[in-house]
Specification:
alpha/beta; binds L-homoserine; 14 helices; six-stranded parallel sheet
Length: 436
């Protein structure tokens, strides 16, 4: 059989990693795919740069459109990233009848509905395993491995840079900016690192996971995102004293009222495996009604781990080349005409527990006032920690853990607590999930 010809758009970190894996494991990959797979063309902005992969048999170009419009190419690997012109390239590739493998989470989260509709019309596959959690085959696990289940919820550490920053701050007391600079130098961070630290990157990934878990359209605009920039060492230390770790989690949960889609710093009991996922590693917990809780762990970024996911998608596409397009695994796990219109909940309707830290005067009745407000708002307290005042200070930190409540109740309670004359400044609120 003729070899399958690949063109790579963007021979950077991920594209280069995929090329290295395809070349190094070529024989093993051909045994799995049933065909030889060769990279014949690649694009890069700098053609003079030295690369880890062998480019001697590739025709290099600066224009991705040269590759997309080459009738010899069967599969396009898109590893440029971002939307804009890249969306145009992917749509053109589909129009030209090419299958596409992409690592581009923002492209899929923002434009996936349109891209998949076009792909179905043209009978081609758009595969995107590498878009979520780097090398962890989480898309395949949910879409295929768990397809007999009703997915109840999932919760993941799906941004390696953010996790790296929180880990270094906790373990080594390092500064936020210093750790972020290291993540950028290591090639983990997004081109715009605010995407990592403000939860946008995780929001893109959560959009994709929720869609394949619940059979809903991709809807990034409905994801609640909160970054890690306000997490202080003080909160990290108090959380530890109460038996918790702070992690930035992407959470998708199906409730009777609708779906919660949220990315935010979260206290997790330290005994949970996912609380011990450190550095740039990613992990996703998925709870299915039949299987129970399952945990997927691995490198969430980096050239070869992400390349591993790209290559697995290429092999899947090659295996499906001769299959009837109607009978392939659906792009978003559920048949395109069976996607459900379940509402995505506003943040006021989220149901979770909370960690609260406030600074209050050290005198009688203060705690009673705070607990009275919580009781009046129908919020039950799980634990209280009051620290002794520092030298000659009259203000003391008070830390409260609540039981699960609705977010609008907590927001109302915080507003009232902040109005107390005995409480100074803002109440610091971090959500808490037991993930039981
Ligand atoms: N910036 C992303 C991260 C890269 O840190 O997880 C992988 O998507």
């Amino acid at each position: 059989m003729k070899p399958v010809k690949i063109g790579i758009l963007g021979l950077g970190t991920v594209g280069g990693g995929a090329a290295v894996v395809l070349q190094r494991n070529a024989a093993e990959i051909a045994r799995r795919a049933g065909r030889e797979i060769i990279i014949t063309r690649a694009s890069a902005s700098d053609l003079t740069k030295s690369r880890l992969c062998d480019t001697s048999k590739m025709v290099m170009t600066q224009s991705g459109f040269d590759i997309i419009n080459d009738p010899e190419i069967d599969i396009i690997i898109e590893t440029i990233g971002g939307a804009g012109i890249v969306k145009e390239m992917v749509m053109q590739a589909i129009e030209n009848g090419k299958h596409v493998v992409t690592a581009n989470k923002s492209l899929i989260a923002l434009h996936g509905n349109e891209i998949f509709a076009k792909a179905s019309e043209k009978g081609v596959i758009v595969a995107f395993e590498a878009a979520v959690a780097g090398g962890i085959p989480i898309i395949k696990a949910i879409r295929e491995g768990l397809s007999g289940n009703q997915i109840e919820w999932l919760a993941g550490i799906i941004n390696g840079t953010g996790n790296f920053i929180l880990t270094e701050m906790r373990d080594k007391g390092r500064d936020f900016a210093d750790v972020l600079a290291e993540a950028q130098a290591l090639g983990y961070a997004e081109a715009d690192p605010t995407f990592d630290v403000e939860g946008i990157d995780a929001g893109h990934k959560l959009t994709i996971l929720a869609s394949i878990a619940f059979g809903i359209p991709l809807q990034f605009d409905k994801v609640y995102t909160e970054g890690i920039t306000k997490i202080t060492r003080t909160d990290v230390e108090y959380a530890e004293q109460l038996g918790y770790r702070i992690k930035s989690l992407g959470i998708a949960r199906k409730t009777a009222k609708g779906i919660e889609l949220r990315v935010h710093p979260t206290l997790i009991p330290e005994r949970r495996l996912i609380a011990n996922v450190n550095g740039v590693m990613n992990a996703v917990l998925v709870k299915g009604d039949a299987v129970g809780a399952t945990l997927y762990y691995g490198a969430g970024a980096g050239a070869e781990p992400t390349g591993s996911a790209v290559v697995a998608d290429v092999i899947d596409v090659v295996r499906a080349l001769t299959s009837d397009p109607e009978n392939r695994v659906p792009h978003l796990a559920f048949q395109a005409n069976a996607l459900a219109n379940i509402p995505v909940l506003a943040s006021g309707d989220f149901e979770t527990a909370y960690y609260l830290r406030l600074n209050a005067e050290d005198k009688s009745g203060v705690l009673a006032d705070v607990t009275r407000i919580l009781a009046d708002c129908d919020i039950s307290i799980e634990a209280i920690l009051q620290k002794p005042p520092a030298n000659n200070e009259t203000i003391v930190p008070i830390i409260l853990l609540t039981q699960v409540t609705q977010e609008h109740k907590l927001t109302a309670a915080i507003a009232k607590i902040e109005q107390l004359n005995t409480v100074s400044g803002k109440v610091n609120r971090i959500r808490l999930e037991t993930l039981g």
